[in-house]
Write a structure and sequence with these properties.
heterodimer, A: 322 residues, alpha/beta, Rossmann fold, Alpha-Beta Plaits, 6-stranded mixed sheet, B: 243 residues, mainly alpha, globular
């Protein structure tokens, strides 16, 4: 059984089904991404796993602990970063970290050095004594993540960790997530940033309307929609006049010549480059670039969920304005 | 031990962040003094000792119910309260930690009119041990009433509305202004369903020796109210805040 195991999880609010019988497993030390637009059911799922919401049906275990019946025992090994930074405005960064540590029963002699270490690690040492309300959005986010790590949890749950914060802070947070993975922490991350999921997650699940429509590694997800291989060539001159010859020479491939000095060859088998290069050499055509075309994760998302990526982009903009 | 560390730190945080703020301290002092002065001006020849049980009751009731309800609703709206719900401590420990600060604030409120009165009258007849115990029990039941309100309210302004909905009828029905025996017959059973009725009667007995109920009964009833309110609050938090 994985570090986090979710089976047939369902959540309804009145007549609305927010999460509809979803199942997945997260292995120890893995970064698992939950990708979907706002309202897809990401936070509802997360809230049930962390024990902030009761499932209508289904089972959840974290490190073999049943979350429904042993919520507090499971929460002791979880670190939770909610979608909104929620520390105490009046308290300093250092005091906030110490308070969060105390909630996990850490003694003063354990929590104070750990708080100092995290402030240093998250590059917040200089502002550690400043009240939380005086922090920028990026700093707040980093301190919220530090607070989730104060008791060295085995599993870290991050809900939209980089939404609405500056580029530099987002980059730092992604680096920290990867660093935590190296140390063996299991990470569950919800996001509507496709690039973020692609960059840091070992496996991704696409969620739409409360259901997981696809899950797997990035190559597996891409493989699921790509049929064949495509190569894009960029040449030094217009090669439209060679169309007939090219199509006759490479019958097994679909050749599309573009007016911008380029062509795309698509085939069900891999396309060997040498014959194509030889053909162009004979025709005194210089090839500047030959690049394999692969579908992007965004293409996969659109194809599998039926949701236009513009919806995610709108969510992203909304997040940025928050 | 771990629960005790969490309990103590929640209490310390609440005292520092909310109760020991200058506006709250000044309110805790000014409010009981204003009540005392108001009563003295209303009846210049009145006996301060007779007024004292009512003033202490009101000070505790107003201090505790509003403070806890407001602080919890405030933390809930900022979602920092989720930190407590997600911490590996039992709901009972969390509830006890949250009400502990308010109870201390209520006790502080209660002793303001007593100290103020001591400037004018001799208080040697007061049974201080019993007085402290009674104030503690009134503070506990009032704090839990505040928590009950907080569970139902979503906005800070709602907590004020709900608090007044409980507090003012309670003041008029608990025998503070009008003796229960003078209330309309239909309202008398309601009076005996209010914890403040027993608290005020105990205070009367402790300060002036004019209680109408047995102190043991009043104390027992306050314990019953405290336990019942605690269980209801815990149940409601579990039902309403863990959706």
């Amino acid at each position: 059984m994985g570090m986090v195991s979710v089976s047939n999880l369902k959540k309804t609010y009145g007549n609305v089904t927010a999460v509809d019988h979803i199942s997945f497993e997260i292995e120890k030390g893995e970064i698992f991404g939950f990708l979907g637009p706002n309202g897809a059911g990401k936070t509802s799922t997360l809230n049930m796993i962390i024990g902030l919401s009761r499932p209508t049906a289904g089972e959840i275990t974290v490190d073999d602990i049943d979350v429904k019946s042993q919520t507090k025992k499971a929460q002791a090994i979880m670190g939770i970063v909610p979608d909104e930074s929620n520390l105490y405005n009046e308290m300093s960064g250092f005091d906030n970290l110490c308070f969060c540590a105390a909630l996990y029963g850490m003694r003063k002699e354990e929590r104070e050095p750990k708080a100092r270490q995290l402030l240093e690690q998250f590059r917040l040492k200089e502002v550690g004594k400043r009240p939380y309300k005086a922090y920028s959005k990026g700093m707040r986010r980093k301190l919220t993540i530090a607070a989730a790590l104060i008791h060295s949890p085995q599993v870290l749950f991050l809900d939209e960790p980089t939404t609405g914060i500056d580029v530099e802070s987002s980059r730092q947070i992604r680096e920290m997530v990867l660093e935590l993975k190296k140390k063996g922490t299991t990470i569950f991350l919800t996001t509507h940033y496709i690039e973020e999921a692609e960059r840091i997650c070992d496996r991704i699940a696409f969620i739409a309307e409360g259901q997981i429509v696809a899950s797997g590694t990035v190559p597996q997800l891409m493989e699921s929609i790509s049929h064949g291989h495509a190569i894009h060539f960029v040449t030094d001159k217009n090669i439209e006049s060679l169309t007939v010859e090219l199509k006759a020479r490479f019958k097994g491939s679909k050749v599309t010549i573009r007016p911008d000095h380029s062509l795309v060859m698509v085939s069900e088998q891999r396309i060997p480059l040498f014959p194509v290069m030889e053909f162009f050499h004979d025709k005194e055509v210089e090839v500047y670039e030959a690049r394999e075309l692969r579908p992007s994760l965004e293409d996969v998302f659109v194809k599998l969920t039926g949701i236009e990526s513009s919806v995610l982009k709108k969510d992203k903009e909304k997040g940025g304005r928050q | 031990m771990k629960s005790w560390i969490a309990f103590w730190n929640i209490l310390k945080k609440d005292l520092k962040n909310y109760y020991l703020k200058p506006p709250n301290i000044s309110w805790g002092i000014i409010f009981p003094i204003s009540w005392t002065l108001m009563q003295l001006i209303r009846s210049p020849g009145g006996n301060i000792l007779e007024l004292l049980p009512g003033l202490v009751s009101m000070s505790v009731l107003f201090g505790t119910t509003s403070m806890l309800a407001v602080t919890i609703t405030f933390e809930r709206s900022g979602r920092s309260f989720d930190r407590l719900l997600l911490a590996p401590i039992s709901l009972s420990i969390m509830v006890l930690a949250k009400i502990a600060g308010t109870i201390l604030f209520g006790i502080f409120n209660a002793f303001v009119p007593i100290i103020f009165a001591s400037l004018f009258i001799e208080l040697s007849i007061v049974n201080w041990g019993l007085l402290l115990l009674t104030v503690l029990m009134i503070a506990i039941t009032s704090a839990l009433t505040g928590l009950l309100i907080a569970v139902s309210a979503k906005q800070v302004f709602e907590t004020q509305t709900f608090s007044n909905f409980f507090r003012f009828p309670m003041l008029f029905l608990c025998g503070l202004f009008i003796p229960i025996s003078s209330l309309p017959l239909v309202l008398r059973p309601v009076s005996f369903c209010l914890p403040l009725t027993y608290g005020t009667d105990l205070l009367r007995g402790t300060i002036t020796g004019t209680n109408t109920l047995s102190p043991l009964l009043s104390f027992g009833m306050l314990v019953v109210f405290a336990v019942a309110l605690f269980l209801i609050c815990r149940h409601n938090i579990n039902r309403k805040w863990i959706l």
